[in-house]
Structure formats: C-alpha cells, structure tokens
C-alpha cells in the first residue's frame, strides 16, 4: 500500500488496549513511522500528537487470509462483469467497513472461463500489484490454484518467484465422476458464475478431467517451489485421512476448512494451522455439511478464522465465540488477527499491538458486536476510516 513519505508521531491516550497478553486500561499507545513504538500507561512524551480515545477499545486490525466476496463486486450476476477498478474500490470500502486491515485476495486460478479464469486472475494481480492501485487496505494475493488448470504454468511460477503471490492453496473442485447426478450438482455452482449450456459444461469438465494427472505433477512442483521461496502452502477441503496424509507429506502450513474434528486434529498434529470461515459460525453451521466452527472451537481445533464469502462475519465472529462461551474474547480476537498473520508468515509485523509491529488497529465502541461499532481504522499509523 502506497504511503506518504512520513507519518505523524501519534500518542493515542485513554483507550482500553488489547495487547498480546490481555487488556491494558487507560493506556498510551505511541506510533511513529507507521509502527507501534510503545504500549504502556505512562504519559505522552514530547513531540507526539495526542489523540484522546478515552472510553474506546483499541484492537489489532483484522488479518483476513482467505476471502473471495470481491467476486460478487466484479460479477454481481452470472455473466455480468463491472469495471475492475470500480469493483476493487468498492471491495476496499467493504473491507474497511468490516475492520479488515490486511487482506489476501483469494483469487481462483481455474480452468473455467470468465470470473475464475487465468485471464481474470492476471488482471486482478496486475491491478492489485500496481503501485498506484488506490487501495487503502494492505492488499496481498492468495492464489487458489485448481489442479486441472495446467495452462501457462510458467506464468504462475513467475508470480510466486516475484512474490506477487504470497500464499498458495491447492484446490481440486472437479467432481470425482461425471455421472448425471454429480454433474448436476457441479453445474449448479458453475451457473452462479457462468452462462453455459449443458453441453458446454460437460465438454469443459471432460477436458479438465483429462488434465488431472499433469496438474497433480505441477502441484508437487509448486509445493517444492513455495518451500524454497518461503511461501506458505494451504490444503483445501480435506475430506479424508488420505487427504490429510498427503497434506502432511507436502508440508502444508494451513488446513483450509477440514471436514471433521478428527481431520482437524490430524492437521494440527503435524503443525498445520486450521482455518475456518466466520460465516459458518454466524450462520450456525457449514453450508456444505462440514463441521461447524462452534464444534471446532469446543474441540479446541480452531486456529484461524477468515471471511470466506462475507466480510462482516469476520468482525462479528470473536464476539460470538465469547458470547457462546467457546473461548475468551481475547483469544477469539487472536483468531482474526495474530494467528492468521502467523499462519501466512507475516506474524513478525502484523496482527499485534506491540512495539515494532505495523500500526494497523481499530478503535471500537465497547461491547458492540457489529461492524457499526468501528469508530476508526488505522493502517500503518494513518487513519483510513473514521467517525470519531
């Protein structure tokens, strides 16, 4: 995110601050050069601009490592696309409105035409990576690569090599068989994005199935490349013990949406962070029949939450976890800040209110679980949204 050459030295005084070790009352938070330099209860030193935030809560900004709601801003109806620059600005406003200060655009790199095509991925990456993109949220790229998309493989490798992509998940959404019932279920999802005939969809799926073996070989190469580059790899929708075993073999860092508690336990046993969608908690369960976030939290196998397909749910989820007695609020907020930052390998600078960390934070009206509680959003020490 492009920033001014210098940022003001700020002293935020009087808020109740959520630090890595718990709440600190009537604190003074010092910010300089876009980073936290002190969090304590001492008086403001000279040279800092004082901001009275008495009565508010000051929390780390939300780190969302898996969100694709931007797709609906690009394509609000099947086959109807809006200008990309307009869609991304709208998305940026929606992120700020939900308290999300670091966002990984989860771009699907699929064999499909249209919204989830390589061409769309290319356009999005070019737009978001441009120095003058105009986005205020710290915007990063997470590629959800489909196994059957084997074309232009060198281009995908180049995105990794140049760090345009800093998170990669391995996806395979093809149906296991092309019988009529399975194809109908698959077609239902496609029709939310594409306008294709039954014959065109069948031809698309049949051609993709023929590329599965080549795609699998590319998967293994991608995993090794990411390990060499220090880029975290995520599995997606592990449904069986064999899926988890393969993820372990690959050294996967993040298990996205494992289907059951035993699979989540097995993923955590080899060191993967379990990531689940906040809408699952807000709705009261998974929309595809997997385990619920509430069950995962109760079983203590939940590490991180993401927006998945609905940004406001990610802000609301920590309050809901605490309200339902599933975990203390202080830990629940780490599930949307500190823990996802660590899983995405940016935990040395994001997700905490602590000296040396990026000054990304929210000022909230206390005890209000809806995004309307957000009074201000700061990113790198600059106010990007405020209603104080």
TrEMBL record:
InterPro entries: Amidohydro-rel (IPR006680), Metal-dep_hydrolase_composite (IPR011059), Metal_Hydrolase (IPR032466), Metallo-dep_Hydrolase (IPR051781), PhnM (IPR012696). This is Alpha-D-ribose 1-methylphosphonate 5-triphosphate diphosphatase. GO terms for biological process: organic phosphonate catabolic process. Coiled coil: none annotated. It comes from the Bacteria. Residues 93-369 form the Amidohydrolase-related domain. Pfam families: Amidohydro_1 (PF01979). One of its GO terms (molecular function) is hydrolase activity, acting on carbon-nitrogen (but not peptide) bonds.
């Amino acid at each position: 995110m492009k920033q001014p050459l210098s940022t003001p030295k700020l002293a935020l005084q009087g808020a109740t601050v959520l630090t890595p070790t718990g709440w600190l009352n009537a604190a003074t938070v010092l910010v300089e050069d876009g980073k936290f330099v002190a969090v304590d209860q001492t008086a403001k030193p000279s040279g800092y601009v004082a901001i009275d935030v008495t009565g508010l809560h000051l929390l780390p900004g939300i780190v969302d490592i898996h969100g694709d709601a931007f797709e609906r801003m690009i394509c609000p109806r099947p086959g109807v696309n809006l200008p990309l620059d307009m869609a991304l600005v709208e998305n940026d406003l929606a992120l700020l409105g939900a308290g999300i200060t670091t966002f990984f655009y989860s771009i699907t790199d699929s064999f499909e035409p249209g919204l989830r095509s390589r061409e769309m991925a290319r356009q999005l990456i070019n737009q978001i990576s441009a120095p003058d993109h105009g986005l205020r949220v710290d915007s990063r790229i997470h590629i959800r690569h489909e196994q059957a998309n084997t074309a232009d493989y060198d281009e995908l490798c180049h995105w990794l090599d140049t760090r345009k992509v800093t998170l990669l998940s391995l996806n395979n959404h093809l149906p296991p068989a092309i019988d009529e019932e399975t194809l109908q279920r698959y077609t239902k999802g496609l029709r939310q994005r594409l306008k294709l005939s039954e014959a065109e969809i069948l031809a698309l799926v049949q051609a993709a199935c023929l590329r599965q073996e080549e795609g699998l070989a590319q998967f293994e190469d991608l995993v090794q490349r990411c390990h060499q580059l220090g880029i975290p790899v995520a599995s997606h929708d592990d449904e069986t013990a064999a899926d988890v075993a393969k993820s372990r073999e690959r050294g996967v860092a993040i298990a996205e949406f494992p289907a059951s508690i035993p699979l989540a336990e097995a993923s955590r046993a080899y060191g993967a962070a379990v990531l689940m969608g906040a809408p699952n908690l807000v709705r009261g369960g998974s929309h595809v029949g997997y385990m619920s976030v509430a069950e995962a939290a109760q079983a203590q196998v939940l590490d991180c939450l993401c927006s998945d397909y609905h940004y406001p749910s990610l802000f609301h989820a920590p309050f809901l976890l605490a309200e339902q007695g599933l975990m203390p609020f202080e830990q629940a907020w780490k599930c949307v800040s500190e823990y996802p930052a660590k899983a995405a390998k940016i935990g040395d600078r994001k997700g905490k209110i602590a000296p040396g960390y990026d000054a990304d934070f929210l000022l909230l009206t206390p005890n209000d679980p809806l995004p309307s509680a957000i009074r201000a959003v700061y990113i790198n020490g600059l106010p990007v949204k405020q209603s104080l």
